[in-house]
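Support reply, case 0932

Customer input (verbatim):
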Amino acid sequence: MSAFPHLNDQGDAHMVDVTAKSVTERSATARSRVSMSDEVVSRLRAGDMPKGDAFAVARIAAISASKKTSELIPLCHPLAIHGVNVDLSLDTTGVEITVTVKTADRTGVEMEALTAASVGALALIDMVKGLDRLARIEYVELLEKKGGRSGHWIRSENE
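Our regenerated output:
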């Protein structure tokens, strides 16, 4: 067997068979950050955006994206998503989006959390691009995962 689980003995990509794995509670938390101009930060704070409620759109986009991850990432298993929490935090230079995805399944939800944080950030950029063409995603990163064979992992502050 290949050292890489997504490659078979011939080196071809394939979807890993998780049939024999136990169903366990699993969760993952990811975050993204969108930086933007002072004007856009002020308008978001005031709820004065030309396209409407940017936070509501980003939140719904993130939730929807978590449920469609297996359609976007080729070797990702389709999962029953049991819960998604999206937190948007506005500060003086932009918005941080933190997403936690939960399931009870045979494989983890790290990709679902990362996809949700990414798409939430993209939706936010779409909502502000008319006011700030320089708005950008600064990062997308996994913060924590729980459950499964590898147990509990938390990103350290130095990573």
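We compared this against your earlier run and they match. Two observations from our side: The chain has four helices and five strands. The helical segments are 38-46, 54-67, 69-72, 110-128. Please reopen the case if you see a mismatch on your end.
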